[in-house]
Design goal:
The chain is an alpha+beta fold. The protein has one domain. The chain has 6 helices and 9 strands.
Length: 218
């Protein structure tokens, strides 16, 4: 079974945001991070009315007027990242949020290039292409799974890893749509509850997808 070498998560919120609010000292002022973390914040790219980008420890924050993203590539900090986002938007209770993404990115090592190619053939058989091309190969596969409850979809992107060679990269997007009438009545609490209820199941199912496919006979 291929081994998981690199693992990351991100939380993406779509709505209307004020990027200038999101800066290390704001998180410190509300007790969401420690003072030393705020003062040693790394890579403060920009903080402005249009965009805010900075890194606190192993957390990366990127906020635009219509998109908020918090991410980490440290598997020991997945839960603290979720808690940080929940804490922030519990304070910003009137922020209109229309969609949530719970995303997991995984790089698995593969024994050798031949095994990697066999995995690609397993995902996308090449027989129908060989009359047109001598050596067809799978570059990227995207599968979509619509979900009714909660409303949304799961998008799975698979390709050769550029960081673990030879390896396979999985990008699993668990997307949740919020109905306008729900957000108008419940404010950000609806979004927070979706994040609380689906965080662990979403991450576990993302891993299950990768392990199921990589564990097949190819």
């Amino acid at each position: 079974m291929p081994s998981l070498e690199l693992d990351g998560v991100s939380i993406v919120l779509l709505g209307l945001f004020n990027p200038a609010i999101f800066q290390p000292m704001w998180f410190k002022a509300h007790g969401l991070i420690r003072g030393d973390e705020a003062e040693s914040a790394q890579k403060i790219t920009v903080i402005s009315p249009e965009i805010s980008q900075f890194k606190i420890g192993e957390f990366m924050m990127e906020v635009w007027r219509e998109r908020f993203m918090a991410s980490t590539n440290d598997a020991t900090l997945f839960q603290p990242l979720r808690d940080l986002v929940i804490g922030a938007f519990s304070l910003l209770e009137h922020t209109p949020i229309k969609a949530i993404g719970i995303n997991r990115t995984m790089h698995f090592s593969i024994a050798d290039i031949d095994t990697l190619n066999r995995f690609g053939d397993f995902l996308a058989p090449k027989d129908s292409w060989k009359e047109l091309m001598d050596t067809p190969g799978l570059a990227v596969m995207i599968m979509k799974y619509p979900r009714a409850n909660p409303e949304g979809e799961i998008n799975v992107r698979i390709e050769a890893s550029q960081k673990v060679i030879p390896g396979v990269y999985f990008d699993v997007n668990n997307h949740y749509e919020l109905k306008k009438e729900e957000t108008e009545v419940e404010g950000t609490m609806k979004a927070i509850n979706v994040l609380k209820d689906n965080w662990e199941p979403g991450l576990l199912f993302s891993l299950k997808i990768a392990e199921h496919l990589l564990g097949r006979d190819y």
